[in-house]
Amino acid sequence: MNDTSAALAAYKIALDMARELAAADPAAATRKADLAFSYQLLSGVDRQRNDLSGARAALAQALVIFQDLSASEPGNAQWKRSLAVGYDEQGLAAESEGDIGGAAQAYSAAATIRKALIALDPANTLWAREMIQSYAHAADLLATQGNGQRAIELLGEALTAEAGLVQQHPTDLDLKRDLEALALHLQQVRERFRKAGARGNGQT
User: Where are the domains of the chain?
Assistant: First the structure.
């Protein structure tokens, strides 16, 4: 048995145990979360084995659980962040399979959840950076599909959030460089689609 097969067997055992524990105590949120994490781990192993359908199915199960947890406890930051991470993983999976539209949708969902997270803790720099990355990634994918308007909107959201971070941390040079790079990227995307629109209208 190779390492991947051994990991798969171990994760399936862990998944069965998590199912039993969650079923034995349906009201325990932590048991449900453990089950969702087990599905996420299984999804990762399936992807390593190139079992893409299995990976998608396991990740979908995890997302359903985290969605239920987040809905049942709207103020619980842990469930929201876990859900956002799940959407990030869904985006990565879709992107690796060439499903650019699905990937962009997943990253956008992750960014929206992180925006709600930041409302719970506006000073959390990590969550803000994660939201910015989700917005930017979704925007770049949408741009490759030719959806310039939506790409520009999401990059604008990212730029606003990055500017907020710079205001919170005015001496952080890395944040300032990130802000400059993001502003330049937004300008380039705008110019690209402006030129594309001009060509479509027969202008030079």
Answer: 1-72, 103-204
Per-residue pLDDT of the chain (204 residues; tens, 9 = 90+): 567 777 778 878 878 888 888 888 888 888 999 999 999 988 888 888 888 888 889 999 999 999 999 999 988 999 999 999 999 999 988 988 899 999 999 999 999 999 999 988 989 999 999 999 999 999 999 999 999 999 999 999 999 999 999 999 999 999 999 999 999 999 999 999 998 876 666 555
For domain 103-204, give the fold.
Methane Monooxygenase Hydroxylase; Chain G, domain 1 (1.20.58)
Which residues touch 127 (CB under 8 Å, ≥6 apart)? 81, 114, 117, 118, 121
pTM > 0.85: yes or no: no
69 CB-near residues (< 8 Å, 6+ apart): 29, 32, 33, 36, 76, 79, 82, 83
Cα–Cα distance, 104 to 60 (Å, whole number): 16
SS3 99: coil
Q: How far apart are CA 49 and CA 197, in angstroms?
A: 44
The CA–CA distances, whole Å, from 127 to 64, 113, 165, 182, 204 equal 22, 10, 11, 17, 43
- Based on DSSP, count helices (H) and strands (E) in the chain, helices before strands: 8, 0
CB atoms < 10 A from the CB of 105, how many? 18
